[in-house]
Specification:
By secondary structure, this protein is of the alpha/beta class. The chain has 13 helices and eleven strands. It has a six-stranded mixed β-sheet, with helices on both faces. The chain has a five-stranded mixed β-sheet with strand order 3-2-1-4-5, sandwiched between helices. The longest helix has 21 residues. The protein starts with about 40 loop residues before the first strand and ends in a 9-residue tail after the last helix.
Length: about 375
Amino acid sequence: MTPQRPAGAGTPPTPEGPPIGAARTPSKAPRHPGSGPLYAALDLGTNSCRMLIARPKGGQFEVVDSFSKAVELGTGLESSGLLSHKPMQRTLQALRICRSKLERHDVHRMRLVATEACRRARNSREFIRRAQRETGLTLDIITAEEEARLAVVSCASLVAADTEQLLVIDIGGGSTELVWIDLSRVAPENRRNAILSMYQGSFNRDPLPGRPRVVDWISVPLGVATLKDYFADVDDDAARFALMSWYFEEQLEAFTPYADATPHKAFQIIGTSGTITTVAASYLRLKRYDRNKVDGLVMNSGQVDSVIREYLALGPIGRRQDPRIGRERHTQIMSGAAILTALMRIWPTERMSVADRGLREGLLYAQMSSDGALDLTQN
């Protein structure tokens, strides 16, 4: 799936060669003989710049290299409507590192995308052109719907065979996506692959028989960074948390399932975000983060609430010193927890699956599926 060039991003290639992320002719042989082609996915969000390089392996993929840097591109966006100088400088430096990794691995199949901060900033097109000019990378500003679809795709392997009603939540830095999917008309053995196929087209509320039906989806322009900034003038820690949670819930009135008080059988929530993986790591009392223990962990509403109450009891200083939260996340963990608390209050569940995955994984699955590089008979 060749990246689409953003409107107005027609800057000529740099002297070093064509922009990475634009269409390129694949080399005749992979860099690593016998290992198959490499794919890359880059997610430039409100807080972080993250990239994965991977190769298909059965019905999954194997990560070859990765990169993650907190660039805080959205700093100041809420008040000014613009991307600021220092955050853009940090981001460009991170993108240069990404380019060097792509070149070192000789990656030709890639999707490089930007999300909420670039969707909202008035100067985002100018920044995208500058990024192409200075780093050689061509980024595509994707829509909220595509971001939500890719988050759903990334979680396909966590969908339980008996799940009939699925809510996927993706808490980002600048926005939160919710997608409610009815799987009751899909045969249990086909549900994971049916979710994986949702990367293409658009959300379908009236699908063909045997396909997932999207009951509704919503992108709330509040994530861990934007919600925190919105209530930055509230000094009391507990009051700020309560206000953030109730304010987020108010934004869900247009989401069709919000008004549906009917208890749902065979209901599963899958949550993907740094907030949710941090809550899971805290619940497990991990002294050091371990993705293998966190990804796929199942928690209930009571367990989630217990961890968040502990965060509140710690206070700002205690959270900063808690190694389970980490110094990069301690200032934003309570805004993310406020969002998660609101969702658990509306849809309490005994089965929330924690996903240490997200947009990058969805981008990789989409590219590999489009190329027929995945063996979907394997889980």
